[in-house]
Every structure is written in C-alpha cells, then in structure tokens.
Design goal:
CATH class of the domain at 10-192: Mainly Alpha
Shape: flat
Strand content: under 5%
Number of helices: 31
CATH architecture of the domain at 10-192: Alpha Horseshoe
C-alpha cells in the first residue's frame, strides 16, 4: 500500500478499528497508514502480539503515546512502555492510569504491572516519579520506595495520597531531612492540632485541623462568601458558628453547611439550600472515605439531601436494596454516578442512563455485561433515533430489520446498522461507498478480506 499522508480515507480508519481484520491488513496500515489511522490501531480493544510489537517499537512517539491512553488492552501491554525512550510517553503512561472515567466492571482494575511501577519509580526524570507518587493505584511498597526518593518534591507529592501511605512511609516523611517536607507531613499526617493562624491553615480542609475559636470566628464572619463557605465545611467549626452560617445570606455558604457530616436529617432540612443536578459536583470526601461503613452508607443513600445520595452512589459496596433505591432516584446525577461507578448496576439503569445522557462513559455502559441487549429490537420502529440506534445491539434482530435501519433518515442509526455483521452484503457495500457511512461499514466484521485489500490498494 502506498504511503498516504494526506487526508485519511474514512475506510482506512474503519479497517484499523475492525476487530475481524486479519493481521496482515493491520500491519500494512501500521507501516504506511496516515497518522490518524495508526492512532486508530493504537486504540483497538484487542491487539495481536505482532501489532503491539510494531506500535511499541514504532519510530512515531505520538503513536506510542496514543497507546498509553488505551486502558482496554490491559496492564501487560501498556507496561511495555515504562521503558520508552521518550519522556512524554512515560509521563503519559502514568498519568493515564486513572480509571475514574471508566464504568466499573467486575474485573480487577490494575493499570500497570508491579514491575512497571517499580521501574517508573526509579525513572531518571523527576516528573515521572512525581506522577507515580500521585497516582491512586501505585502499590504501597512503591510508595515506600518513593518516600526515600532523592528529590524532596517527589517525597512531598506522596502527601497528596496520605491516607494510602504505609506506616513506614508516614514515619519517613514525618522525619524527612527536608524541613518543607516535614512541615507538610506534620500538617497532613499528625494527629489533630489546634490552628491559631490563617497562615498555618492547610490549603484544603484537613481532618487533622482544629480551628482555634478566634480563627473560627474570623473565618465564619469574613466578608468574603467563599471564605465563609470554606469555614462552613471545616469539621471542627463550633456548633454555634455552624448554626450561624446555616442562615447565611449567601446560598453557597448555606449549601456548604447542609453538606456537613455532623448534621441530622432534621437539621439539614431546616437549611434553605439549593443543590440541583446542573451544577458541578464532586463527591463528598467524608462519604467516600466511609464507603466500607454500612451504617454511613445507609444514612447517606436514604438522605433527603441529593449531595449525600450522589456521593453514596460512588461507593462500590452498596447492598442490593440501596442499589435499587438509588437506581430509581429522582436526581439524575445519583443515577448517573451509580451507573458509572457501581460494579453491578441494574440493566434497566444502564439503558435509562444511555438514553438520557451523552458523555464519556456512555460507550462503557453500552458494553457493560449488565446492559440489557435482548429485546432492544423493539426500538427499531421507535420515533426516537437514539432508541433506534440501539436496536442492532439485540442479538436476535433479523437481518431484514438491520437492512431497514441501514436506510434510516438518521445518520447515527444508519451507522449502527453499517457496522452490524447481519447487514446483507449488497447494502454493506453500498454503505461502504457512501462517505457518511464508509468508516462504520469498514468496521463491519463481515466485510470480506478481498474488499479490505481493495481499500488498501486505492
């Protein structure tokens, strides 16, 4: 195949993503395909070993970086890049170890091998070691190694995951030779202490912080609403100041008070707060820190406050009755977070969320083993194109129905039919010739190998 570096034929990208494409086709695309075609190869969910070899050893560092994004290939494949000569590849490899944008599954989630973490923790470049220190999946014994890192900046970064540190690492940081690291470690790791001055107050709320009364009053009565909101979330704020802020004129301050862990349901209900699904939301730390506490989870999952229910929905160990209750919650974010984070979400919840939500996690929901595929053919005649696009996921949909969907007025529906192996061959070839559906048709696993060769020869 000639080397084509201009605008890519969408059929080439489709071939790169075709899970049934023979190895020789994939290797020819790797050798002479345009950049975006090679990136599509690096994003495949399954890869023959020779294709992996070709990508890992490829001269194009951008291609190797693209492989660092691909969590679906598993830790063994990605870990081969831990010794990559390019600094950017190694940094990307560690940065993209975070599964928070992936729907939970029942399989263990390990982004890299232990050997890869050990190698990266000894990387000659500080920025790589800092990233290893920051990652939540870094093994405990590797954090212990980083607690003795020659660079104080690396050691300081370990404090950002303080609760995950071993006793040995905590002790090492508390007695660190660098005074800045020691001060930061004392602030993060030592038992509760009274803070008298704003200059000594940690940047973020700390469980080990007790506000001295004069400082608490100063913060709770500050003229800046943001400062009062932060004070309202401080665990050690005296009860009388909490009550004062519960009636604060600023709605953000009242909301911060309403999310405190020490309030009863009656006290929360008495606060005039607004917490709608259209605002940015981060799960409450005090809830997610208690994911293993059944009593706390039940209290939060059954709370009238949506922030508590949304936070509980992030926890993977909820009992079945709470999972069912949250799956039917009136709050959209509660349902979304449960669908994204629970390892065993109800199938009806996944289907509802896919139809309600368009975002980064939708594709993972569609491929979750609980997603209810049987019966989706009922959507083939729906007035909603989003429902019609799901019909081809039904394992029992007749080929004639797939063909009919291939003529649908909605492009997304036509593309869902174009990639379906049950699409009759004549219509598949027609869709392959249509620029709007060419990429999807080239992904069709039933595409004959001789047609693939024709595409490569164009």
């Amino acid at each position: 195949m000639r080397d084509v570096r201009g605008a890519s034929d969408p059929r080439l990208i489709g071939l790169a993503r075709n899970q049934a494409a023979p190895l020789q086709i994939l290797l020819r695309l790797l050798e002479a395909g345009p950049d975006d075609v090679r990136r599509a190869l690096a994003a495949r969910t399954t890869m023959p070993e020779r294709l992996v070899d070709g990508i890992v050893r490829h001269r194009d560092r951008g291609l190797r970086r693209a492989l660092t994004w691909n969590l679906s290939v598993g830790p063994q494949v990605r870990s081969r890049l831990a010794a990559d000569p390019d600094l950017g590849v190694r940094v990307n490899l560690v940065e993209h170890c975070n599964y928070r944008y992936q729907v939970s599954t029942l399989e263990p989630r390990t982004p890299l091998t232990i050997e890869a973490y050990e190698l990266l923790a000894a990387d000659p470049e500080r920025v790589v070691r800092e990233e290893v220190a920051l990652q939540p999946y870094t093994p405990s014994h590797v954090r212990d190694l980083l607690a003795a890192d020659p660079d104080p900046g690396v050691r300081r970064h370990l404090l950002d995951v303080g609760s995950e540190l071993s006793e040995a690492a905590r002790a090492a940081l508390l007695s660190d030779p660098d005074p800045g690291v020691r001060r930061a470690a004392a602030q993060c790791l030592e038992p509760a202490k009274i803070v008298e001055s704003e200059s000594d107050l940690p940047r973020w709320i700390s469980k080990g912080t007790i506000l001295a009364r004069p400082l608490a009053e100063r913060l709770a009565r500050d003229g800046d609403a943001g400062t009062r909101a932060r004070a309202a979330a401080e665990p050690s704020l005296p009860a009388d100041l909490v009550a004062e802020l519960a009636a604060d004129p600023d709605p953000e301050v009242r909301l911060a008070v309403s999310r405190r862990p020490d309030l009863t349901e009656e006290q929360r209900a008495a606060i005039d707060y607004t917490d709608t699904p259209d605002r940015n939301f981060h799960p409450l730390d005090w809830v997610t820190d208690a994911c293993g506490d059944a009593a706390v989870m039940r209290r939060c999952a059954t709370s009238a406050h949506p922030a508590l229910r949304r936070s509980a929905a992030h926890c993977p160990h909820l009992p079945p009755d709470l999972v069912q209750a949250l799956a039917g919650d009136d709050d959209f974010l509660v349902r979304l977070f449960l669908a994204e984070n629970h390892p065993d979400p109800p199938g009806a919840l996944l289907l509802r969320t896919v139809l309600e939500f368009e975002g980064y996690s939708q594709a993972k929901m569609l491929h979750h083993p609980n997603f209810p595929r049987a019966g989706l053919r009922r959507f083939a005649t729906s007035s909603d194109p989003r429902e019609r696009a799901l019909a081809t996921m039904d394992p029992h949909i007749p080929p004639r129905t797939v063909e009919a969907l291939g003529y649908d007025p909605d492009l997304a529906v036509r593309r869902s039919a174009a990639v379906d192996a049950r699409l009759p061959a004549p219509r598949l070839l027609q869709m392959l010739a249509d620029d709007e559906t060419a990429e999807a048709a080239a992904r069709n696993p039933a595409l004959p190998v001789e047609v693939m060769e024709e595409i490569l020869g164009r």
